[in-house]
Each structure stands twice: as structure tokens, then as C-alpha cells.
């Protein structure tokens, strides 16, 4: 076990006062318990092309190894501690990545999650293959339920695929169609029909075929007129037949899937409620006043109102949310500019936030990438910070309106009593107005309060609490139009790719499907939501719609109807096969690509300070809503084409 360091902030500090931080890894990790990335970095850090600060750091560590008197003389003039690459990897493994407490008294790991940065007890990284599914809930209720649903849905799709086995046999038999050109099981077990013939159609006209979208004359033919008789018209028809008994497995599979997903949905809701009830959080003791008077900014007034009207009511905390969104954004922007200026400070100069003008003058020039992406240089950052300081000073003198009030009680019983007392039905409020509640429950004797249970404190979006319903409706209308535009742009790209080849179309679908969440992230910046849950729901809806349109609906809309069962790679079923193959090849490869490796192995070793180096050792961000839409995309695609491509159930499983 490692001895506790003298300075616990040594991994993050750039200050010369922290020179006594331990040089060796303070967590005493054994190489076998390190990530492979850290092991590779250790072997490469001896080369200057990989770790440019190698010599500077080695000299600093050499001075640290001296006696106290010699060390003091050697480090008296050191203002900036040279960054340590191994300490940055310690930051990554002990702060960024989750770890569990090691219990040596038990032969079996208990996987109790450790707090980030603990070094007083032994911790280890969660094993990729050895972590039980029951322990995944430690990363959040949604994460645990997601992995359970993923496994259960895989089993459901596999069983549904096996139920369709008689259909596979029939589609691949000569009773349905003669042997085709392709011997692939997935194409032979689909509804591809190789038996076609030309049939007379006296009432068919060329105009009928050209008026439909998308139009094609591939299945239309006519004889030339000899002057005395009308030309004869013919259309290409499929001679493949399928009866009720052959499609019976599809009906059975459909009933099985509906029942299974219904039970799974009920289980997930019960499980979520069970986990939520088992964990006592601030939400279980709190209420939110959605419509307080604009001038009700005194917490003492709210405390007196509830204490007076509810027996044994003790308020632990009262938070008044005011309409100061502009001020909060200005403060956040100033902090961002300050960090950018610090990152431009040369490595041999200690950043002084009390003398920003001097820091701007010595700031390093922008890299080509930052210059091309319109980043501010040092002088521009200083000017922007000065302007923000003036704006913050002016905004801080304003009297902001109250938008919401959050109250936390000492007991859960009090919270339930308050929610019950103010749970008048909407019709009662509409008919009786303020008289729907007794006078003592009306704030200031006249205000009828709308009180609900709030989201968790870390889920509340404090900057979005002041938007009106009209503003939110306008924002939703704008984001809906932008979402439709994204669908239209992607649909046109798929159409152009489909005209070139079905493989290119399938790759385009996969690329757009994976890129669409980034477009949605930018679109969601327009919307205001009171909680992260509300934002995630809106984000999930938009992502699902876009991905469903790309993979299933647009694919069928750009193909003429007569191409549905045709044999050949230029027709619909072959396109479906290519999309399945592309998705199952492209999505796992993308998931395995960790773009953070570029930052950890290239930008990190070249960072001028420990703080900037640690910033390059962040984990890859993920959104649960994006993962769920990826799951529903496969389900929707499979169900949409289940009648003509039943083996899709096996692909999805």
C-alpha cells in the first residue's frame, strides 16, 4: 500500500510549492493492473520523439532525489513543475476511469465502486469481461438496464429468427423459386424471386409508369403499332407464390415478439422503480414550485409558508432559481476564455490570473488548426475577458425575477404530504380558479402554486428554468424543421449513392446513421429543458426518427415497387442485405476506435504543464440516448423488412 503523499494535489498542480510531490506513482499500481495504453506509453516515453519533455522531467526528478538542502537550492527558481507523463496516466486510471475496491478477505471480487482518486485503499480497474451485469447499475440505472435489455433483446431476436426457420426453407426451395445466382444463406432465405414472366396488360400505359415515383420502365414493354391495331402492352410479373401456411411462422414470431417486449418493458419500469426506491436521494425529500410570484425571492418567506401549513415541517434547504441566465452564461464564458489563455501560456512561465494583460502578451501563437477554426489568440482572449467583466458587473446589479423554487424537507413524509395537498386536478383549477385550494394553502393568500417532484439536483438544467411555454414551442418548431432538413439532406445523399452502387449506398447509410447524433447535438443547443431527462427524451426522439428514416424508410422509398422482389444487386432485397452487412461491420469497428488515444499518445506527451497534460487524458464521452437509438434502429429495420427478409432477425441477434 502506498504511503499517503505529502501533497494530495500533486498530480494536478503546476505550482513550485508542490515540488515535494512523490516522483513515483503514488498509487503503486502493478503493471499487470494497468491499461495497455499506459504500458505502451511507459515503453515509449524513453524516446524524445514520443515524450519531448523527457530530459526536462528527468532533470527535475534527479533534483528531487537529492537531500532536502540540495533539493531546495536546485528548485528555488523553478516556477513551473515539468509535467510527468506517468502521473497523467495515473490521473486517467484513477480519476477518469471507474475503479472498484479490492477486498482481500474474500476470494471473490465484490466490485464495490471506489471514489475517484482514492489511494488510502487498494483499487483496481473494472475488468471488461469479468464485471457482473448486476454491478453495472453502479454506473447509473440507465446503464444497468441498457445492458440487460441488450442481452434480452438479443435472445428474443434469436428465438424469433429460429421460429422463422420454416420460411427460410420454403424461400430457398424450388417450390418458391428456381435456384438463383447467389448462394448466400441470407439471400436464399429471403423473398428474392428469380422466376418472372411478361404478362399482357391491355389497360397499362407508359404514362402510368412514368407518373409514379421513383419511375422506371424496366418492368414495362409494348409492341410497335402497325397502323391498323393498337400496340400491345406487357408488364413483368413474379411467378413466385406463398400461401398462408408458409407465412404462419411470421405470425407466431410476431405474437412472441409483442408479448416478450411488453413483458420486458414492464420489467424495466419495475426494475427502475425498485432501484430508485432502494436509493434515497435528494429528489425523495424535495419539491419544486413551478409558478412562484416573480418577486418571491426571500427563502424565509417560503420557509414560513410551509412550516405554518404543515405539521412537523422542517426545511433543510431552499433554493431560489432566478432569471439570471445571461449572467450565468457570461460567467461560464469568462471561465472558458481564462482556461484558453492559460493553455496558451509558455511552459516556462507560471500563469498569473491576476495579471491577464501580461499573460496575453507572452501567449503562444495559435496552431494552424485553432487558427482555421476561429479560436481567439492571447490578445483577443484578454479583450474578450475585459468585455465580459464589464458585462458581468452590469448584470450583477439587476434584480432578477424568481422562476422556480426548490425546497428540501427533513423527512420524506413531509414531501409526500405537500405533494398530496397541492395535487388538485387540472379541471378543478380550471373551474374554481384560486378557490381550488383553501386560502391557507394559497401563497400570500391568492397565488395557486403548481408543486411537483423535481429531478435530481445534478439533472436540473439551471440555465433553462426561465423560458416560457411560448419560447419552448418556438424552439421545438425550429428544431423540428432542422431535423426534417437533416433527414432530407441524408436522403438525397443516399439516393445519389444508390445510383452508383448498392454497396456505396449501404456505406452511406451507415456513415450518416453514425454521424447523425452529432447533428442532433448541435440542434439540441436551441432547445431549453428543465432537466437532463427531458433533454435526453427529446434527443432520443430526434435520433430515432433520423436513423429509422435513413436505414428503412428512405431505402424503400428510393426503390421502385417492382424492384422489391427482383433478383440482382441493383434491387431492394440485395440493398437490405448490404445495409445489414455494413452496419454489423462498421458500427463495431467505430465503437472500438477510441479517438482519445490520439490525445493520450500525441497531444498529452507534448503538453507544457501537468494540468494541460491531464486535460488530454479524459474518457470517451457517450450518450445513453444514442446507444438506445442504435438498438431501436436495428429493431425497426428488422421489423420493417421482416416479411421479405426474415433472416434479419438473426443479423440483429
Which terms would index this structure?
globular, disordered N terminus, alpha+beta, 653 residues
Overall shape: globular
Strand content: 5-15%
How far apart, in Å, are the first and last alpha carbons? 45 Å
Mean pLDDT: 80
Pairing-aware structural class of the strands and helices? alpha+beta
Output the strand order for the largest sheet: 8-9-7-10
Radius of gyration: 33 Å
Q: Helical stretch count?
A: 24
Description:
By secondary structure, this protein is α+β, with helices and mostly antiparallel strands. It has helices spanning 36-44, 54-64, 68-75, 85-96, 141-163, 165-171, 185-188, 206-211, 244-278, 299-309, 325-343, 356-361, 368-372, 378-395, 412-421, 426-432, 469-500, 502-524, 532-557, 572-592, 596-603, 610-615, 624-640, 648-652; strands at residues 99-101, 112-113, 123-125, 196-200, 220-222, 233-238, 286-289, 315-322, 402-409, 451-452. The strands form three sheets. A four-stranded antiparallel sheet has the order 8-9-7-10, covered by helices on one side. Strands 2-1-3 form a three-stranded antiparallel sheet, with no helix packed on it. Mean pLDDT is 80; it is low at 1-23.
What is this structure's SSE topology?
Blueprint: H1 36-44, H2 54-64, H3 68-75, H4 85-96, E1 99-101, E2 112-113, E3 123-125, H5 141-163, H6 165-171, H7 185-188, E4 196-200, H8 206-211, E5 220-222, E6 233-238, H9 244-278, E7 286-289, H10 299-309, E8 315-322, H11 325-343, H12 356-361, H13 368-372, H14 378-395, E9 402-409, H15 412-421, H16 426-432, E10 451-452, H17 469-500, H18 502-524, H19 532-557, H20 572-592, H21 596-603, H22 610-615, H23 624-640, H24 648-652
Antiparallel strand pairs: 1-2, 1-3, 4-6, 5-6, 7-9, 7-10, 8-9
Amino acid at each position: 500500500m502506498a504511503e499517503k503523499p505529502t501533497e494530495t494535489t500533486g498530480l494536478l498542480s503546476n505550482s513550485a510549492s508542490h515540488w515535494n510531490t512523490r516522483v513515483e506513482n503514488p498509487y503503486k499500481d502493478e503493471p499487470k493492473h494497468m491499461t495497455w495504453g499506459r504500458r505502451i506509453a511507459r515503453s515509449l516515453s524513453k524516446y524524445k520523439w514520443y515524450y519531448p519533455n523527457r530530459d526536462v522531467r528527468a532533470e527535475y526528478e534527479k533534483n528531487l532525489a537529492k537531500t532536502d538542502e540540495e533539493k531546495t537550492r536546485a528548485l528555488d527558481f523553478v516556477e513551473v513543475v515539468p509535467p510527468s507523463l506517468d502521473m497523467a496516466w495515473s490521473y486517467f486510471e484513477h480519476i477518469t476511469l471507474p475503479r472498484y475496491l479490492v477486498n482481500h478477505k474474500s476470494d471473490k471480487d465484490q466490485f464495490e465502486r471506489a471514489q475517484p482518486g482514492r489511494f488510502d485503499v487498494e483499487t483496481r480497474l473494472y475488468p471488461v469481461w469479468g464485471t457482473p451485469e448486476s454491478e453495472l447499475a453502479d454506473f447509473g440505472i440507465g446503464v444497468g438496464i441498457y445492458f440487460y435489455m441488450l442481452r434480452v433483446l438479443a435472445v428474443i431476436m434469436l428465438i424469433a429468427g429460429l421460429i422463422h426457420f420454416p420460411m427460410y426453407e420454403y424461400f430457398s426451395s424450388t417450390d418458391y423459386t428456381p435456384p438463383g445466382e447467389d448462394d448466400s444463406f441470407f439471400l436464399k432465405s429471403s423473398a428474392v424471386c428469380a422466376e418472372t414472366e411478361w404478362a399482357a396488360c391491355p389497360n397499362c400505359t407508359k404514362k402510368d409508369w412514368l407518373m409514379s415515383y421513383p419511375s422506371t420502365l424496366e418492368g414495362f414493354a409494348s409492341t410497335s403499332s402497325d397502323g391498323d391495331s393498337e400496340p400491345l402492352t406487357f408488364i413483368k410479373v413474379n411467378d413466385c407464390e406463398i400461401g398462408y401456411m408458409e407465412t404462419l411462422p411470421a405470425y407466431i414470431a410476431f405474437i412472441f415478439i409483442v408479448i416478450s417486449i411488453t413483458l420486458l418493458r414492464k420489467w424495466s419500469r419495475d426494475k427502475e422503480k425498485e432501484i430508485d426506491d432502494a436509493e434515497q436521494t435528494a429528489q425523495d425529500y424535495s419539491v419544486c414550485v413551478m409558478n412562484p410570484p416573480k418577486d418571491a425571492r426571500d427563502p424565509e418567506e417560503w420557509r414560513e409558508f410551509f412550516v405554518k401549513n404543515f405539521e412537523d415541517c422542517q426545511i433543510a434547504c431552499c433554493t431560489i432559481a432566478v432569471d439570471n441566465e445571461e449572467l450565468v452564461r457570461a460567467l461560464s464564458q469568462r471561465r472558458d476564455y481564462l482556461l484558453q489563455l492559460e493553455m496558451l501560456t509558455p511552459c516556462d512561465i507560471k500563469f498569473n490570473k491576476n495579471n491577464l494583460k501580461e499573460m496575453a502578451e507572452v501567449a503562444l501563437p495559435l496552431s494552424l488548426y485553432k487558427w482555421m477554426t476561429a479560436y481567439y489568440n492571447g490578445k483577443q482572449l484578454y479583450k474578450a475577458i475585459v468585455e465580459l467583466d464589464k458585462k458581468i458587473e452590469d448584470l450583477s446589479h439587476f434584480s432578477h425575477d424568481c422562476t422556480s423554487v426548490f425546497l428540501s424537507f427533513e423527512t420524506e413524509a413531509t414531501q409526500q404530504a405537500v405533494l398530496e395537498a397541492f395535487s388538485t386536478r387540472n379541471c378543478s383549477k380550471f373551474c374554481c380558479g384560486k378557490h381550488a385550494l383553501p386560502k391557507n394553502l394559497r401563497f400570500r393568500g391568492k397565488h395557486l402554486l403548481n408543486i411537483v417532484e423535481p429531478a435530481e439536483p445534478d439533472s436540473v438544467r439551471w440555465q433553462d428554468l426561465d423560458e416560457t411555454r411560448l419560447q419552448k414551442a418556438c424552439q421545438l418548431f425550429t428544431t423540428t424543421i432542422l431535423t426534417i432538413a437533416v433527414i432530407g439532406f441524408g436522403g438525397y445523399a443516399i439516393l445519389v449513392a444508390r445510383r452508383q452502387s448498392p454497396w456505396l449506398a449501404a456505406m452511406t447509410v451507415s456513415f450518416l446513421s453514425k454521424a447523425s447524433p452529432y447533428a442532433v447535438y448541435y440542434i439540441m443547443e436551441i432547445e431549453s429543458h428543465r432537466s437532463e431527462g427531458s433533454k435526453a427524451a427529446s434527443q432520443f426522439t430526434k435520433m430515432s426518427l433520423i436513423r429509422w428514416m435513413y436505414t428503412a424508410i428512405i431505402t424503400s422509398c428510393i426503390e421502385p415497387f417492382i424492384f422489391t422482389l427482383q433478383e440482382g444487386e441493383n434491387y431492394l432485397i440485395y440493398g437490405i442485405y448490404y445495409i445489414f452487412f455494413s452496419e454489423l461491420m462498421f458500427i463495431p469497428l467505430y465503437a472500438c476506435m477510441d479517438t482519445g488515444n490520439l490525445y493520450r499518445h500525441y497531444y498529452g506527451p507534448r503538453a507544457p504543464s501537468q494540468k494541460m497534460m491531464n486535460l488530454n487524458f479524459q474518457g470517451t464521452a457517450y450518450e445513453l440516448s444514442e446507444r438506445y437509438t442504435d438498438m431501436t434502429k436495428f429493431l425497426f429495420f428488422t421489423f420493417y423488412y421482416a416479411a421479405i427478409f426474415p433472416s434479419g432477425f438473426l443479423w440483429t441477434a
